[in-house]
């Protein structure tokens, strides 16, 4: 009976439909990668795109395309990381409102980086990443501890309120640290908006090991999250170590959030929107939901970056602004349409 309920409740979609949606989302991702390389403030010909992909930078157009290639790759990696982290956090907390931004994880990473820059003069990429990961982890533990206080433990509503309050508090601390420091204020404010502009392969080489580790840990936690979705008591009855399973999955999400925040700045709402959309396509089986969330997150962030280049020409809107315009109304819709108790 238990195995039947797991198979029926966790995997309601047929495998054929899932494979079809996987092919569709993958095709959209390829198209967005092509558009991301082709679209920008400068018009370029297809011959320049092909030449730049081949490593040539003989003309201004080819040089422009060469700069878009690492930007496209960073948007792909960051979007996949945030989409996957959002699905993990919603599974760990059984909270439909869970998101790296809403739960304060991104802002915790931001505060740690700002403290490192303002007080300890960190400058290396590795120091940024370690500070962001530690800040994300500390913030996640703090929010979960606050949300667990009182009757009923860590309910979705209490976690959302604790995360929102923590985000506001950490944001205020960041402002307090940056305001008297004119030497770092400009760079920190630009970074805090959240964007993928100025990406280089050298910057990505530092963050890639953390992202790879986060992806592996997160994807390996799919079966554990399926067990947790049945409830703590039933998961424990099936032989799952509930606390260890939660910590393992959360560690993967923290690595992804911290590393992404270090290189891109805090990008909100993407981790909220993507898992909900993916559940409509593939159901709640995390063995499918997690990889779909990664691919769909990459699509959404690439699309947001492309839109940001188009609507403000010749200037650009950072992806953090575009995702906020998309995510804020979605957040309100989720709050109004769902009873935020558990998934």
From TrEMBL:
Transmembrane domains' residue ranges: 20-39, 72-89, 101-120, 127-147, 159-179, 243-276, 288-311, 317-335
Gene3D superfamilies: ABC transporter involved in vitamin B12 uptake, BtuC
UniProt-listed Pfam families: FecCD (PF01032)
GO BP term (any one): siderophore-iron import into cell
Entry's Gene Ontology molecular function annotations: transmembrane transporter activity
Membrane topology: Multi-pass membrane protein
Primary location class: membrane
Keywords on record: Cell membrane, Membrane, Transmembrane, Transmembrane helix, Transport
Cellular component annotations (GO), alphabetically ordered: plasma membrane
Cell location: Cell membrane
Family recorded in the similarity comment: Belongs to the binding-protein-dependent transport system permease family. FecCD subfamily.
This protein's name: Iron complex transport system permease protein
Organism: Rhizobium subbaraonis
């Amino acid at each position: 009976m238990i195995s039947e309920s797991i198979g029926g409740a966790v995997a309601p979609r047929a495998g054929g439909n899932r494979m079809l949606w996987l092919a569709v989302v993958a095709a959209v991702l390829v198209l967005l990668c092509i558009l991301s390389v082709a679209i920008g403030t400068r018009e370029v010909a297809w011959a320049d795109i092909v030449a730049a992909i081949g490593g040539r930078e003989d003309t201004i157009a080819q040089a422009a395309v060469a700069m878009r290639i690492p930007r496209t790759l960073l948007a792909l990696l960051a979007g996949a990381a945030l989409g996957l982290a959002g699905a993990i956090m919603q599974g760990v907390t059984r909270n439909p409102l869970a998101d790296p931004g809403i739960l304060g994880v991104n802002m915790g990473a931001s505060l740690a980086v700002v403290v490192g820059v303002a007080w300890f003069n960190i400058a290396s990429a590795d120091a940024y990443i370690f500070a962001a990961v530690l800040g994300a982890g500390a913030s996640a533990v703090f929010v979960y501890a606050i949300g667990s206080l009182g009757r009923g433990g860590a309910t979705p509503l209490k976690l959302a309120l604790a995360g929102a309050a923590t985000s506001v508090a950490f944001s205020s601390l960041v402002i307090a640290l940056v305001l008297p420091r004119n030497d770092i204020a400009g760079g920190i404010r630009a970074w805090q908006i959240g964007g993928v502009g100025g990406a280089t392969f050298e910057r990505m080489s530092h963050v890639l090991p953390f992202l790879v580790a986060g992806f592996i840990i997160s994807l390996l936690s799919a079966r554990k999250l399926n067990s947790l979705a049945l409830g703590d008591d039933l998961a424990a009855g099936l032989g799952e170590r509930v606390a260890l399973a939660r910590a393992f999955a959360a560690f993967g999400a923290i690595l992804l959030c911290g590393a992404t925040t270090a290189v891109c700045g805090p990008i909100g709402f993407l981790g909220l929107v993507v898992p909900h959309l993916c559940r409509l396509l593939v159901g709640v089986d995390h063995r499918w939901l997690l990889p779909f969330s990664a691919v769909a997150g990459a699509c959404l962030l690439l699309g947001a970056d492309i839109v940001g280049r188009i609507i403000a020409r010749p200037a650009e809107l950072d992806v953090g602004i575009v995702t906020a315009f998309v995510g804020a109304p979605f957040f309100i819709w989720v709050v109004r349409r769902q009873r935020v108790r558990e998934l």
